[in-house]
Amino acid sequence: MNVFRLLGDVSHLVAIIILFLKIFRSKSCAGISGKSQVLFALVFTTRYLDLFTSFISIYNTVMKVVFLVLSYATVYLIYLRFRSSYDSESDTFRVEFLLVPVAGLSFLENYDFTPIEILWTFSIYLESVAILPQLFMITKTGEAESITTHYLFFLGLYRALYLANWVWRYHTEGFFDQIAVVSGVVQTIFYCDFFYLYVTKVLKGNSKLTLP
Amino acid sequence: SDSQNGKDEL
Fold first, then answer.
1. Within 13 Å, how many C-alpha atoms sit on residue A94's CB side?
2. What is the torsion angle, in degrees rounded to the nearest 10, for the CA atoms of residue A20, residue A92, residue A38 and residue A201?
3. Which of B9, B1, B7, B2 is nearest to A110 (CA)?
4. Looking at CA atoms only, how far is residue B3 from chain A in angstroms?
5. Average pLDDT of chain A to the nearest whole number
6. CA-based nearest residue in chain B for residue A162
7. Chain B residues with beta carbon closer than 8 angstroms to that of A162
């Protein structure tokens, strides 16, 4: 565990908590893509199956359980509890265009042709594109509440910090996970345009992010 | 082995 990895995990946790509390306290999921949140719940489910097969550390187990519980709780808030506020007409990204290629690629390019390993690979590939329905929704409506942009900032920052963690681990331990690193680079690239808008607009005091 | 790569990460 290095400082980049720890800050990455904290950033990930902060992002998920921001989104959950935003929906819970405002009793509304307006502007939030339910599709992206279902994809993230699927990411955690398929990645953390090793909770049942191997123990790594208390930290590892607790974080995995927290991510799983919060992701399903968020999906519950969007699709059941505050369903009336869900903007399904703006959440029109076709997720099958992500799921089919990602599933196909995880069968072709993995470390071991076993169910748990293919599902882990699937989760890594899927995570790299799971935010696209949310970004698509913001592009379509042309705006996002600032609290939603804080969520996106921490979610993007998390994988960028993991990139630094992988550089660190490569130099200190010789650790190199090609699938995670390539996907992590792709994932971070998707956030670059958003990072630019976040710094130039939201951090300058605008109450909302509006697209030009 | 490679298949254990990344499993200590989240």
1. 4
2. -40
3. B2
4. 5
5. 96
6. B9
7. 9
Q: Do B6 and A117 touch (CB under 8 A)?
A: no
* For range A91-111, the mean pLDDT: 98
Which range of A37-41, A175-179, A202-206 scores highest in mean pLDDT? It is: A37-41
CB contact under 8 A, A54 and B7: yes
Secondary structure, 3-state, A3-65 = HHHHHHHHHHHHHHHHHHHHHHHHCCCCCCCHHHHHHHHHHHHHHHHHHCCCCCCHHHHHHHH
Question: Closest Cα partner for A112 from A120, A123, A101?
Answer: A120
Mean pLDDT of A107-125: 96
Per-residue pLDDT tens digits for A8-61: 999 999 999 999 999 999 999 999 999 999 999 999 999 999 999 888 999 999
Span A190-202, average pLDDT: 94
Residues of A with CB under 8 A from a CB of B: 5, 9, 12, 50, 54, 56-57, 60, 63-64, 67, 111-112, 114, 117, 120, 124, 162, 165, 175, 177, 179-180
Task: Indicate yes or no: CB of A12 within 8 angstroms of CB of B8.
Answer: no
Q: Tally the C-alpha atoms within 13 A of residue A105's C-alpha that lie toward its C-beta.
A: 16
Cβ-Cβ contacts under 8 Å for A56 (sequence gap 6 or more): B7, B8
d(CA A94, CA A96): 6
Mean pLDDT calculated for residue range A87-111? 97
